[in-house]
Amino acid sequence: VQLQAFGGGSVQAGESLRLSCATSGGSFSTYGMGWFRQAPGKEREFVAVITWNGGSTSYADSVKGRFFISRDNRKNTVYLQMTNLRPEDTAVYYCAGYRHGTYSRRNPYEYDYWGQGTLVTVSS
């Protein structure tokens, strides 16, 4: 299973970005999918997760109400819409997937597949 994230870039505080993560191989429609991020000098942290059919989503408190995760199982793609971006959102963003995606998972060790990161830089 391969995951490829894209859509990162440099924006000003208050602006929006949409990240995409395209997958190939495996059974995307059965996977739970998540986004994580890692800022310089910090550990990787959970951002958002969506279950296999999009029926359940969960967010880190730091992004709740500003970020929105969605998926299109016809396109094998998961999205992260980021609004009202803040400088503290600056990080490398990673998409990841786990098998048996019925329940939301926040622990990165429970994820089976990872994509390469895409850098998001937010300036004030």
Provide a brief overview of the structure.
The protein is mainly β and 124 residues long. It contains no helices and 11 strands.
Any overview of this molecule?
This protein is mainly β and 124 residues long. It contains no helices and 11 strands. It has strands at 2-6, 9-12, 17-24, 32-38, 45-50, 57-59, 67-72, 77-82, 91-98, 113-114, 118-123. Strands 2, 4, 5, 6, 9, 10 and 11 form a 7-stranded mixed beta sheet that branches. A hairpin with a 6-residue loop joins strand 4 and strand 5. It is globular, with a radius of gyration of 13 Å. The model has no long low-confidence stretch (mean pLDDT 97).
SSE order, one letter for each helix or strand = EEEEEEEEEEE
| Percentage of residues in helical conformation | under 10%
Mean pLDDT: 97
Shape: globular
How large, in whole angstroms, is the Cα Rg? 13 Å
Biggest sheet, in brief? 7 strands, mixed
Give the distance, in angstroms, between the N- and C-terminal Cα atoms. Answer: 37 Å
Low-confidence stretches: none
Structural class: mainly beta
Any chance you could write out the topology, listing elements then pairs?
Blueprint lengths: L1 E5 L2 E4 L4 E8 L7 E7 L6 E6 L6 E3 L7 E6 L4 E6 L8 E8 L14 E2 L3 E6 L1
What distinguishing features does this structure have?
mainly beta; 124 residues; single chain; 4-stranded antiparallel sheet; 7-stranded mixed sheet
